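Priority: low. Protein: Arabinofuranosyltransferase D. Input follows.
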Amino acid sequence: MLCLAQAPLLTVADTKHDLVADPWGFLHQALSPWTDVFPLGQLQNQAYGYLFPHGLFFALLSWLPDWLTQRLWWTLLLTLAFAGTVKLLDALGPHGTGSRASRLVAAVLFALSPRIMTTLGAISSEAWTIALVPWILLPVVRILGASSPTRRQTATAACSSAVAVLCLGAVNAVASLAAVLPAVIWWVCHARRPTAWRFLAWWVPAGVLACFWWVGPLLILGRYSPPFTDFIESAGITTHWFSLGEVLRGTTSWTPYLSDERQAGAALVGEPVFVAATLFLALLGLWGLSGMSRTRVPYRHVWLVMLGCGLLIFGVAGPFSPVQDAARSFLDGAGAPLRNLHKFDALVHLPLVIGLAHLLGRVSVPGWAQRGHWAHPEKHRPVIMVTAVGLLVATLTAPAWSARLVPVDGYRSVPSYWTEAADWLNDPANGAADSRTMILPRAASARQDWGNTRDEPAQALLDVPWVVRDAVPLVPPEAIRGLDGVQREFDTGAPSESLAAALTQQGVGYLLVRSDLTRVAHTPGARSVLRTLRNSPGFTEEASFGDGDVRIFRVGDADGASPTAPRTVHTDDLDVVAGGPEVLPRLAAADGGTPRDRVLTGDAGDLGLAGPVTVTDTPALREHSYGTVTSPDSAIRAAGDPWRGMNPVRDYPVDGAQTTVRETDGRLIPSSAGDDPTSFGGADTLSPVSAAVDGDPTTAWYPASGSPVNQSVTAELAQPVEQLRLTARAQGSVLRLHVTTLRGGRTVASSTVQVPVGREKTFTLPPGEADHVELRITGAFGSAGLSEFSLTAPDGTDVTPRRDIVVPTPEGREVSRWVLGQEIPEGTMRRIITVPGPGATVEVSTADCEATTSVDGDAVRCGQSLDLTPGEHTVHSTARWVELTDTTTEASVSDGDAGDRIVYTPTSVNAGRVGTLDVDGTSVELEPVTVNGWSQGWLVPADLAPEMSDEDLAAAVSVDFSATSTYRTWLAAGLGTAVLLLGAWALLLWRGRGDRRSVGITHPEVGSVEVRAASDCAMPTSRVATVAWAGVSWVLAGIPGVLAAAVTVGILRYGPRVWSGVQPSWIFLASGGLATLLLTRSPWGTDGYAGDSSVVQLALVVCLTAVVLTPLARHHRETARRAGSSTSA
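Result:
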């Protein structure tokens, strides 16, 4: 009922839209690693992991309403989490841990833990693995706690645990690893027992059978997948909230801190009542763990070891770790699959739940005979305690019973106009099957005004190839750049003569324009797209659905060639380009809309093409904000400019020299700039710091979004100057600047000046030799920027640092033309090009002949010829692009038949794709090459099938994904191993059905027979334990953490000698109470977030030290006392 009460009748965006929209089709697609249907052709990302049990569950129940299937899945998940925890607690010791009532309470709090409530409605695949942790661990606990299990019992326990591992699925391999780790730790703690090794001999093979089906596909994915982990969330984001307070609360998942889509998660991280309740629960669990050690409860120290392992995993990359930089670098590099360490939450939360069950077991629950006590609860302590526990549980689970487990924007159904549009495209009569459909406008995720599907609604409906620019397409970075180049053509809403040709080159034959996206989807909207299509040649509106919510446009002629069909091009006809794939639409425009195939300089070398080169100003050094598609790119940067983002790479990488800003006469250092893509609202490329010194009064440096007050730009001079004069002009409003001159980092003098709008004003700065000048805004009215400033020496020399955009020229290559452009709007484009010797005579053309264009300061017009001497030349233009064609360069000409040929398809490059040509009955594997910077092609040597025409050759080349057969064979073999495991498990259970000493999953009452303290893990000496905890404290909080732990140990050891009233409980309550108070007072979303406070971190280190070391010290004192008594006897 709990799950059915969550937004009834509404389907929500949980994990994959296909699971509710077309589960059988989704599972069928998962049987192939490669698909040409998904954007630009791609390797499916762990789609095989949904085959079992997640996808199969939804497929088998696909006859039910979508929302109901979701809720039944969640119900199964919560039931398994609850029942598994109860059984695990029952198995811990001869009589279980705690009382029956406390075990039920603990199980409820595990099933509705912050981790599960945060992920259940939005990405239940992660919550599923947490729910199965107790079931994986349970057989291990039972068998290693049994006195003398038989071989059949041991095998049954191993298979039971492995079946639970099988049920994890493989949506995320790291999440599966995290779910198995508690059981591994339990085994390691008992490895000295002979039973442990006999169990391991069964457990490992059974585990291999359980995991075999997904290991092979995972290896194939790792071998052939593009490096998309570089472009998704960074370790700096995923580990930012790993402070001890959040780790103990179980709120380490980073998504709720950045988005309120997950209602329960957002409440847990930001509402004080939940912050206090969850941290209080964690403290109760810690005290319960301490109590288990004091009362010598079986397995007590295993939970402390497990907790310590969890704290280490979270702490090593946490905000207070002294090795956080190294850890985060590892997670952003070789350890990228482990980047989301929050998946290891069970290592922390499960021990806390166990401790809570033990602690609450001391609370007696009034029975029927004491029912009268409820009339006067204040007189009866058990009633008060039960009431308090009930209130705590109610508070902790409030996000669940208040129907906040679901993410926002649920929907009743996908509107019919989407189904109708997909049916139209799927109809073979309309020809979309022979082309690719591009969904416009781009959007980070599919959040429509009728609901949030997260995945594209068309994804589960289309059988024809399609493409959309979403947050991070799972294709190579070069293909993303090529896709972005086309997407930008729609941003201006202006007509384009060459857009249809550029789309055809990408295999796009149809456009699906949707108008139902919300702003939350991070989309530029459909208006500019529709304006461009209706005013550009080559587009025909074919159909409209709904009230214009979805429109379909055809690209080009209806009787044209299939856009996605293989194509043939002669290598001599290729245009060699020094640039990135994003420049292709610009080149198509410069060529008058005539489609032409191209190859980048890096790929041209592999083909032996050494002819003239088209030089462009791409790729440019920019900073890209991954995860958004609106204003995600900065203006062109200098190599030394600060990097605001946290990702391991600044932008989608591509081979080739970059166009960069060259700094001369010093450098400029802004506190922030409007072109910062990580700022709110994205980048404004018209307001970089370069605009303050570009000599153009129409541009200006603006700080990043927010108030400009206290923002600054510092000029670092090439050499010290005795007394400076400042000339400045403001834009937007009058600026009050506090000007400070510095020398060697020390202030020389300062003054405050008023900078007017629209005109320059010169100020003489106070005397004193300075090498830095800081201009800090101390007053402005609304949005204001610094349009221009310059610094001059007493002799009139301009000492202002300059920033010029320099276009590299390939060394040793003849240049046929320069095609320069505003890939992203700049207002006025400024570029410095280098003309190789002996110079060139160029003809000028631009995107707009009415635009202002100059070369070396002299105005030029379309069609004008210029003589350019060897060396650098400056080009300025307000046009979108400028072409300078060298009229003295002879273009290479192909005779049409001679030379090598390339057969390529407009799909993304992948090392696993193989092209073969059948020649005289022999299959010849072709050499892979790259065309247009991103398209997969294969080289056909001139002596191979020379008699074939280009059309016949394109049709004769067969394309396959090399690992497909291995992938499917592995899945089939994995099915066999899974059936073998299930069969062996069922047989063992059937044969042991009458054995009351069985320790299988289905026999909970026997697994804890004769559990002794000897079954607990071997305890290190007190000194070793102290050193180990010192290491953990260092990881958690550095040297201050070690000192805090040392002081705590000193007080615990020597405090009672000074005052007998010193107790560990006092230290625990004081430090834990302080941390709770501070974190509750300043949760996430408030000023001075307490999770970033070292006081809170150190307080919790003290709290943990009192819990961990006090029981260890007591254990060893008791052991020594018993040993002394034996010796005396």
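The first helix runs from residue 18 to 21. The longest strand covers residues 712-721.
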